[in-house]
Design goal:
The protein contains three helices and no strands. The chain is mostly helical. The protein has one domain (2-77). Helix 1 (2-32) runs antiparallel to helix 2 (36-80). The chain is rod-shaped and about 70 Å long.
């Protein structure tokens, strides 16, 4: 289960970083070449589309990361506790 959670978290955050990177490196330089009215219109379209998805994407990434951290911490706590305490032995 932890492996699946790690893969999903990595994929979600990786796609988020890739989107942010592509906007700053590829989209913004192209938009700067447009005239002012076309640039404003294009920015408004991008902002509407990404502005609708990003809050949910950021929240999902944060919740997945917190869930993964808790799952790994619990797994390590069970794995590394002393055997007598784990099996109820004194």
């Amino acid at each position: 289960m932890i492996l699946a959670l790690t893969i999903i978290t990595t994929l979600c955050i990786g796609l988020l970083i890739g989107t942010e990177f592509s906007v700053s490196v590829f989209i913004n330089p192209i938009l700067r070449r447009l005239d002012v009215l076309a640039q404003a219109h294009a920015i408004r379209l991008f902002a509407r589309r990404l502005g609708a998805a990003m809050p949910f994407w950021y929240t999902a990434s944060l919740l997945l990361l917190i869930g993964e951290a808790i799952a790994i911490a619990m797994s390590l706590a069970m794995c590394c506790s002393s055997p007598p305490a784990r099996f109820g032995l004194q």
